[in-house]
Amino acid sequence: IGPFPGGAPRRMGITQGMLLAPTFYPLIPPLGEEGWQVEAAPPGGDTTNSETALYDLSITAPADLALAVSGVEVDREVSGARQTVRVLSGPMRDIAFALGPFQVAERQVGQVTLRAWLLPDHLEEQDVVLDAAAGQWALLEELVGPYPYPELDIVDSPGAFGGIEYPGLIFIGTLGTPWVVEPVVHEVAHQWFYALIGDDQIHEPWLDEALATYATALYYERAFGSGRATGYLSDLRSVVRAHAKPETPIGLGVGEYASEEDYTIFVYFKGALFLETLRHSIGEDAFHSFLKSYYQAHRFDIANADDFQDAAERACACDLDALFDLWVYEGGELPELAR
Q1: Could you tell me if 170 and 153 are in contact, meaning their C-beta atoms sit under 8 angstroms apart?
Q2: Orientation of helix 271-282 relative to helix 284-298, angle to 10°
C-alpha cells in the first residue's frame, strides 16, 4: 500500500502518518440467480456488494500507533516495537481499520461505546463529533431498530471523500473545517442503511444513500426543529431543480448516471426528497412502522427495491406503484415539498 497520489486521501493508502485500510479482507459476494455477483464497481460509487460474515482477525502493527478497527478488540500483545491485536466481530458485510497517531475520546450511549479517533490538531472537535454521533445513534435506535454491536468507531481521516462508511467504523474527512456534523450523521446512518440492512450498492445505491441522506434531515428535525430540516431539504430540491434533467429517476445503477455529480444529485439529493414525499404520502405513523418492519425483515440481509416497496405498502395498506414509478423507476416532474 503506497501513499495517496498527491497526498490527497481516497479510500486506501498512507497519508499524514496514517494508514487507512478499508475492505482489506476478502468479502463474500451475493449469490444470485445468475451466479456470484463479482463484477467490478464503476467509479464514483461504493465499491462493495457483500453478504455478512463473522470475522476473527489478528493485526500486527507498530506499537506506538493507535489501531481503530471494525469489531471488538479481545486481546493485545506487545513485543518490543510491535503490537498484535486480535479482533472479533458480529455479522458484518465488510471490515476496515486505521492506524495512526490518534488520540481517543469516548462516550457511552446506552450499551454502546462511541469512540472518536482524532489527530492531535483536531482534539478540540471531539464534542462536536461525539454529540452528532450520539444524537443520530439515539434517533435511529428509536425510529429504526437496535444497533447490535457494542461499539462504533469514528476515525479522523482528512480528505476521505467527506466521509466513508464501513460496518462498525466510519471515516470522516472534514475535521478542521466548518462541515463536520453533516458527514458524521450521514455516515452514522449508514450503520443502519448499508451495514445492517444491506443493498446492492452498484445497481440500487439509492437504498442506502437516499436513506442516509434523509436520516440527516431527520437528525436536523430532532436536534434543531422542523425549520432546519425543511431548509436542508429545500436546499437539496434547489440543486435537483437546477439540473438540466430533474426528472431523472433515483433508481438507476451507479454506472447509469452521466457523471459522479449526477449520481450524487439524484441518488442522494432527489432520493432524500422521495423519502420525504413517501413519509407525507403514507402518514407519520405508517412511515415509522415501515422503518421498523423494513429493519426487522432485512437486518443482516440484502434488501432490494421490491422489498422496500413491499414494506412500505404493508405499513400503509396502500398501493404505491404510481409513487415509485414517478420517483424510482420512470422519473417525472418534481412535485412540491409536502412541508
Answers
A1: yes
A2: 120
User: pLDDT category, 1, cuts 50, 70, 90?
Assistant: very low
DSSP state string for 208-238: HHHHHHHHHHHHHHHHH-HHHHHHHHHHHHH
Q: What is the 3-state secondary structure (H, E, C) of 173-207?
A: CCCCCCCCHHHHHHHHHCCCECCCEEECCCCCCHH
Cβ atoms of residues 152 and 137 within 8 Å:
yes
Q: Which H/E stretch holds residue 22? A: strand 18-22
Query: 297-315 pLDDT, tens per residue?
Result: 999 999 999 999 999 999 9
Residues 6+ apart with CB under 8 A from 293: 311, 314, 315
* Residue 6: pLDDT over 60: no
Is the dihedral angle over the CA atoms 51, 54, 56, 62 positive or is it negative? positive
Please classify residue 116 by burial: count the beta carbons closer than 10 Å to its beta carbon, then call 0-12 exposed, 13-18 middle and 19+ buried: buried
* CA atoms 271, 237, 174, 221: torsion sign: negative
Q: Report the pLDDT value the prediction gives residue 5, as an integer from 0 to 100.
A: 40
Determine the Cα angle at 24 with ends 204 and 177, to 5°.
Answer: 75
Query: Average of pLDDT values for 240-267?
Result: 95
Q: Residue 157: which of 319, 19, 313, 314 has the closest Cα?
A: 19
Please state, in angstroms and rounded to a whole number, the distance separating the CA atoms of residues 198 and 304.
9
Q: Which domains does the chain have, with CATH numbers?
A: 5-38+55-88+94-193 (3.30.2010.30), 206-329 (1.10.390.10)
The SS3 of residue 115 is strand
User: For residue 25, how many C-alpha atoms fall within 13 Å in the half-sphere facing its CB?
Assistant: 18
